[in-house]
Amino acid sequence: MVIPSPTSAPAQRVPVVIIGAGPAGLTVANILRAASVDCVLLETESREFIEQRPRAGFIEEWAVRALRQRGLADRLVERAQPHSECEFRIDGERHRFPYAALTGDRHFTYPQPLLVTDLVREYADVRGGDIRFGVRDVALQGIDGDRPAVLYTDPETGERRRIDCRIIAGCDGARGVTRTYVTPDRGTVSRYDYGVGWLALLAEAPPSSDCVVFGIHPRGFGAHMSRSPEVTRYYLEVPPGDDAENWSHDRVWSELHARLTVAGAPPLTEGRLIEKRVLDMHSYVVEPMTYGRLFLAGDSAHLVAPIAAKGMNLALHDALLLADALVAYCGTGDDSGLRGYSAACLRRVWEYQEFSQWLSELIHGPSSGDPFRTGSAQARLRRILDSPSAAAAFAESYIGKEAVR
Ligand code: FAD
To answer: Distance, CA 405 to ligand 1 centroid (Å)?
Structure first.
């Protein structure tokens, strides 16, 4: 273990330090900057790295509206593709589900690296915000008092730096450090393991459908999601802990064809696989999402398995609420937003976790080998296809309700 050198430079002081430049941290930083609240954003990776890291792609329309109102979605709105239907494929048949017609809201397909690129550019290049890349050994001090501080090692000089602040926004994702400060005596972490793995794939191939396709199959779940005119995301259910190296190009495509091909659907267009990794499907929730002067947002507070494409949407929801609360607190001293922050976020977090769990059973039941789970999953699907009220409830959860204005 490397022992950081002692703090040598004099401490800096800003109202807010944000840790992590993902969608959550960048959104908070941009909103603070626009409101003239000083902040420093610390990120362990380089700018090039975060602008290329592939992950999410589906953004709910309420989130697009909220980002747009804050001047953060110009390029997104210009370039993203709206989606209004999804399709279930089961027993050789296709079932389209028109959720936008039921709710009035759509998804926008916009790869996460593009959103991150836009948010970094807006914060650093347009709004002149302070962002420090490549920092090491981030540590927090005094979060239960009035004078918290963040320490980190400067990547260029190796010096230990200290920033004194009033609030710390912990936006450093699932592998970050801030969540570890919510120790068992300060909060709880609830976990859920789905017991399945997903092979997450990105293919250099145009989408083979105009919408998200859920392939429900006894061999295992398979999914198709467009990312751009040239790139498509696919998922294959695999045993948890499986090694991506077990999945050759030919095996991947043969399995995708087996799970997603139905009569009347356009054939899958194959392409080079540019990402291939196994995700063990699990979720967690930290409660409360705050301790003292530390406020967690996004994946640092809650991981939601990407079954229903909810993680980045939740991260944006937290970030919008936290940023508005911070602007009020730093501007007028009104701390009501900060006091209500955790409860307001957790309501949506649990709704999205519950929906992901519900959808998981629908898509994974038929490959479980358990006839009871198969029968229940089929009943679930029939209900949303046959009952208008069940369809409306599903559509509302799938697209996410209006939240932050
Ligand atoms: P992150 O994006 O993880 O950002 C955290 C940042 O903090 C990173 O840049 C990291 O480098 C940095 N960091 C980490 N540790 C430190 C530290 N100690 N100090 C400083 N910085 C640190 N969600 C959806 O809504 N829709 C989808 O379609 C979707 N698809 C997905 C597909 C896949 C394959 C995966 C893996 C996820 C998907 N998600 C989706 C989830 C989504 O990607 C995450 O929920 C989202 O990235 C969370 O944003 P965040 O800002 O909270 O965290």
So the answer is: 23
Query: What angle (nearest 5°) sits at the alpha carbon of residue 268, between those of residues 228 and 56?
Result: 35
Please give the full DSSP string across 207-254, using - where no structure is assigned: -SSSSEEEEE-TT--EEEEE-SSS-EEEEEEE-TT--GGG--HHHHHH
Nearest Cα residue to atom 30 of ligand 1: 56
- Is 87 part of any domain? no
Tell me the CA distances in angstroms from 361 to 112, 192, 299, 368, one per residue in order: 27, 13, 23, 9
Q: Which domain holds residue 55?
A: 12-81+112-190+283-354
Residues with a CB atom less than 6 Å from ligand 1: 19-25, 42-45, 50, 55-58, 112, 138, 171-173, 175-177, 200, 279, 298-299, 306, 309-313, 315
Those residues with Cβ within 8 angstroms of residue 175's Cβ, 6 or more apart along the chain or in another chain = none
What is the per-residue pLDDT across 238-257, written as a single tens digit (0 to 9) for each?
999 999 999 999 999 999 99
Domain of 183, CATH number, reads 3.50.50.60
pLDDT of residue 388: 97
Q: Is the pLDDT of residue 319 over 90?
A: yes
Q: Does residue 92 fall inside a structural domain?
A: no
- Assigned domain for 140 exists: yes
pLDDT band at 11 (very low <50, low <70, confident <90, very high): confident
Tell me whether residue 49 is in a domain: yes
pTM (2 decimals)? 0.95
